[in-house]
Structure formats: C-alpha cells, structure tokens
Specification:
9-stranded antiparallel β-sheet; binds protoporphyrin IX containing FE; 11 strands; single chain; two-stranded antiparallel ribbon; 11 helices
C-alpha cells in the first residue's frame, strides 16, 4: 500500500481499537489517516487480486462467490469525456481492489465524501472489476457514434435473434458494463455504486443484476458449486490453469480483429430464469435425464464419480443411450471448437407478483474470443433441442467487448481511446 493511503482495514483496526471511530468531526479523517500511516507494513494480504495486468481481472480469476453487474448507457456525446471516465474508473478500481477507498479522502464538511463508506472496515474480498463496451457504444441507431466504426471488431456484431428468447429489452444490452465480483456482496455493491457515482453526468445505469453463489468453477483448486436446480455446475468448464485452452478459446490473439482488442475477450450475459416450481415437481429421473448427469454426485449418467469421462456412445441394457439425445450435456459438447469459459451466478429478484412464483435462476456469463463462432452456434443448438428448455427461459441478453488489462499507471481501454 502506498504511503499516505489508508485501507478500509486500517479503518476497521482503528475503529476497533477504540480510536477514531466513524462519526468524525472536522479533521477526524486526518486523525485516522495519520494513525493509519503508522500502521506501516499492514497489508490487506492474500485477499486482493491485482487490478493491473495483461488481461483484465475477473475472467481468469478464481471465481468469487458474489457478483454485481451493471450495464450503463452513455449520456455524453463527447468521446474525450468517455476516455476520462475509463481513466477515473481504472484509478478508482485499482484502489478498491486493494481495499482502499474509491477516492482520496476529503475532509470538508461541505462536500460529499469521495467514498460512500459502506465498505469501510471490510476486507478487499478478492474484488475484481471488469469493464466492457457493447455494440451500441460504437454504433447506435445506425449512426457511427464517435466516428470509429472502422475499428469495431466483427466479433462484436449484435447477437442474432435466438430461438426461444423472451427478452426484456429493459434488462438487455448497454453501451458500457462493469462486472464486480467479490467474496463479500457488500464489497461488490460498493464498487459498482462508487463507479456509477464517478460516471455521474456521463452515463447512467440501464440495468443491473446482483448474483449470489457462483455457478461455475474456474480453477482446478475449487470445488464445483450447485446452481438453483441443485445440480453441480462447472464440472467440465475451462479452468484458468489450462493456459492452452484459455489462449485457444478465451483471449483474443494478436492479429485477430482490431489491435486494441488483443489480449481481450468477449462477454455474453444471459439472464436465464428457471421455472423452479415446474422443475421441483418433476421426478429425479427426469431431472437427471434432462442434464445427462446424476444430481447428487454430478457423475455422467451410468457412472459414479463427478469427473468420470462423459461417454456419449454408452448404452443401457435396453440399447438406449445412457445420456439422452436431448440431454443438456450431450448437446453442449457436440463441437469441440465451441468451448467457452462459463462464470455465471445464481440470482433471485424475489417473486413474480402476477403468478406468485420465484423469479430466480442463473445469470449466465461466458467469456470467449469469438461469440459468433462459439456462444451463438452453441446456444442455437441448445435452444432447438435441449430438454432443459422445459424448465428455463432466457429473459435478457447482452454482449460486451472486454479490452485487455491496463498496465500500471494506465487505464482499461487505453489502446482504443488513444486511436480516437
Ligand atoms: C439455466 C440454464 C443452464 C443450466 C441450469 C445449466 C446447467 C449445466 C450443468 C449442470 C452442466 C453439467 C456440469 C458441467 O460440466 O458444468 C452444464 C454443462 C454445460 N453447459 Fe450448461 N446450463 C445452463 C445453460 C447453459 C447455456 C446457456 C450454455 C451455453 C450456451 C451452456 C453451456 C454448457 C456447456 C458448454 C457445458 C459443458 C458440457 C460438457 O463439455 O460436458 N449451459 N450446464
């Protein structure tokens, strides 16, 4: 931690020590700050993820337990203001990832504080912030918004209409996105809130989604979580330690598309509502057939252990395939070129007041280097035949280009904005 910066955990320590507390008069923050500086050597420890790096954090990062995702619409037409916004976001993002307040403390009784305060005293909780640009950032209502249509990646073409979609436009798309992931929900919320505050006058939130409980594992060191259908989810996901698969399927290589995207990736988000009441009424056998795996062990049908290989040829005594023709797992692994990094979260937005049913499901997030060649054909196949379709509805959709990471002292999107 740099000299003169006070971490949220310093505040906790000081408050806990009966020191300054948080109800401070004029000069109170200064008192905390100077005392905090005395705590030299105090470090947030292993619970931070560096903001800066070759790729943005929150993709290959071991998946955290909570998420707050926000999509924003620009209200400024001045691209230099958007550049400044990405600078300010990166600066605040790097501070918050270290467990520091979003901005320099101010001591004025007459101005709002630079940090909203609800994360004071909380651990950094592996906070990651991932920033993205949607197709409408470049082209809106057919207009080349900032005169940069020639450097829009082909891979960012809007997703085509997909069979079965019942999309709520008010919860779809967006010019910009922020994905905040952390092991503490209040830390993720705080980060998005402060970034939105920084964007005031330039961009407004169009929709946002809170996610609790990861529905994938992205590291070999993690156990597989369960989604809200009670199924182990993420067993055969790409794991970040597998650099070959990450390079082949997730990161955009040099020379593919515009140079500002090299080292970046594309994020597809789908709000998938589960028809939980229907699912809860069907037999265990039907649930397992739908997915192609046993519910409790997560093993492929007919096998005992979660990580036993999936054999699509295996037949039961009656000659029928053990994994049904329309099972989710069978359809999801038809083409080895379509692999994706899944990094979604369970969500609930309470009840559907009209029907009195749970409004809950999977906020699906996938990273891939080419959504048109990976997510789209994969989802088309699932949408056409997946037995799981009886129990789910895709209710919102969004696509964002995720630029590469920022170098220390730089900002996310720098290579794009320096060309404008
Ligand atoms: C609510 C909706 C969904 C549920 C409940 C669900 C659940 C599951 C489960 C339980 C597995 C097996 C364990 C695993 O390997 O992770 C799985 C595998 C998989 N799912 Fe989904 N999934 C959903 C939506 C999707 C969507 C929208 C896609 C992509 C378009 C997708 C792509 C995959 C892939 C690629 C696999 C791995 C298949 C393999 O290689 O074995 N899933 N899903």
């Amino acid at each position: 931690m740099g000299e003169g910066k006070i971490s949220r955990r310093d505040l906790l320590r000081l408050a806990g020590a009966g020191g300054a507390g948080l109800t401070l008069g004029a000069g109170g923050y200064a008192a905390i700050r100077s005392a905090g500086n005395e705590a030299a050597g105090f470090s947030p420890g292993s619970t931070t993820v560096p903001f800066f790096g070759e790729n943005q954090a929150g993709i290959a990062t071991t998946q955290q337990e909570h998420m707050h995702f926000a999509a924003l619409g620009l209200i400024t037409e001045d691209v230099s203001e958007v550049r400044n916004l990405f600078r300010a976001w990166s600066e605040a993002g790097a501070r918050m990832a270290e467990g520091e307040p979003a901005g320099d403390e101010n001591y004025s009784q007459f101005l709002p504080p630079e940090d909203t305060g609800e994360a004071f005293g909380l651990h950094p909780a592996n906070l990651t912030l991932t920033f993205g640009l949607g197709p409408s950032f470049f082209q809106k209502d057919g207009e080349d918004r900032f005169g940069i249509a020639k450097i829009v990646p082909e891979a960012l073409a809007p997703l085509p209409p997909l069979t079965g979609d019942v999309l709520d436009e008010a919860r779809s798309d967006g010019d910009l996105c922020v994905q905040a992931c952390a092991d503490d929900p209040q830390v993720a919320f705080h980060a998005v809130r402060n970034l939105v505050r920084i964007a005031r006058g330039l961009a407004v939130v169009r929709w946002s989604q809170l996610g609790f409980g990861r529905t994938a594992s992205t590291s070999m060191a993690q156990s597989t979580p369960r989604n809200l259908m009670g199924l182990k989810d993420g067993t055969n996901n790409i794991k970040a330690e597998d650099r070959d698969l990450m390079d082949r399927f997730v990161w955009v290589p040099d020379g593919e598309g515009p140079s500002w995207m090299a080292g970046g990736t594309y994020l597809v988000a789908r709000r998938i509502r589960m028809l939980i009441e229907v699912w809860d009424r069907v037999s265990l056998a039907e649930q397992e057939t739908s997915i192609g795996r046993h519910k409790y062990s997560g093993a492929p049908i007919g096998r005992d252990n979660e990580f036993d290989p999936v054999n699509l040829e295996a037949q039961g005594e009656n000659g029928e395939p053990l994994i049904a023709e329309d099972a989710h797992v069978r359809l999801a692994r038809q083409n080895s070129e379509e692999r994706i990094l899944r990094r979604g979260y369970s969500f609930t937005d309470g009840f559907d007041a009209e029907r009195g049913q749970l409004d809950a499901g999977l906020f699906f997030i996938a990273f891939q280097r080419d959504p048109q060649g990976q997510f789209v054909p994969l989802q088309q196949r699932l949408a056409a035949n997946d037995r799981l379709n009886e129990y789910i509805r895709h209710t919102a959709s969004a696509l964002f280009a995720i630029p590469p990471g920022a170098r220390e002292g730089g900002y996310v999107g720098e290579r794009l904005f320096e060309r404008i």
